[in-house]
Amino acid sequence: MTRNVNILSIVLLVLIQVSCIREDEPTCIDWTEGRKDLGFSINENIGERKVLIIGIDGFRPDAMRADRTPFLHKLSLEGSTYFTNRNKVEYYSSTGPNWSSLLTGVHWCKHQVTKSNDYSGNRLQEFPHFFKYIEEADSSIKTASFVRWTPINQNITREHADYANFTGSSDVKVYNAALDMLLKQEPINPDILFLHFIDLDAAGHGFGFHPDVPEYAKALALIDGYVSGLISVIESKRKIGEDWMIFVVSDHGGDGREHYDFSKDSNSHTIFFVNHPIIPFSHSYVSSQTDLVPTIMDFMGIVSEEFISKSDGVSLIDHVVKIGFTDSNP
């Protein structure tokens, strides 16, 4: 009888564990704790490349439309852009887990930043910001991070950036600081620049996450203007020979005034843009938060064995399509 009870207990335990795993929840790729393969290589054939990442907090997936975000809508239709509004957010569909996954390339079950947003018990030393891998590969590559939400720089970016001591008191200050850095190279000339805007998320929490809510629509229009201004600067740089890849990403969407119910489509998906004038992308693939970093590393021509062993994402660059490339220049 005792043996039967023990077997029943084990079966019940397994069933409980299985029931806690959602079919739509990301699966972490296995990684052996303590493994430190620090080998890396750099593709010297690709030349100097640069990256702009525009992070927009709280972008509901159906809010990207022609009457609300005309510039972003036009950008999404360009052949040189990978775009989806089905980008899969983390199971904990809140700010901390998603920005952590976007910037580390691993799911929350590895970095352990969960819905509390307080970063207690995180494993970000073990699964760090991708700036760390960039620095190890080539310390001459300059990285910068301008954020509205302080915990991003305090907890994720930390010591890994060349410049990350800026936290703007408003989105417009983040925008202006980014323009100064891009146009005047002050205080540094960035090769990789990450920006974080939060007014859209604030409008959602205050009035409702929906493109027909006036306050949310107004915030969308402002964000669309910021993105237009920033990409205009990058286009000018491209014309003088600088090779830039542009990302526009978000941490989560929203429903009502919250975004915590992962079962709701407007919470569990958001937008994801990648733009480059000649590099082809895997348009049939639907991205997730962990795909940002592998795409950047691929574009920069940096192969870090440590990152590869830890990462849960894939590059969105399509290496099968060879439009405008040679075999030595993917």
Q: How are the secondary structure elements laid out?
A:
Layout: H1 2-19, E1 40-42, E2 49-56, H2 70-77, E3 81-88, H3 95-104, H4 108-111, H5 131-137, E4 143-147, H6 150-157, E5 163-167, H7 171-184, E6 192-197, H8 199-207, H9 214-239, E7 243-250, H10 265-268, E8 269-275, H11 292-300, E9 302-304, H12 305-310
Parallel strand pairs: 2-6, 2-7, 4-5, 4-6
Antiparallel strand pairs: 1-9, 3-8, 7-8
Helix pairs in contact: 3-6, 7-9, 8-9
| Strand order within the widest beta sheet | 3-8-7-2-6-4-5
* Count of helical stretches: 12
| pLDDT averaged over residues | 88
Which residues form runs of ≥5 with pLDDT under 50? 1-23, 323-330
Decide which structural class fits the backbone.
alpha/beta
| Architecture (CATH level 2) name | 3-Layer(aba) Sandwich
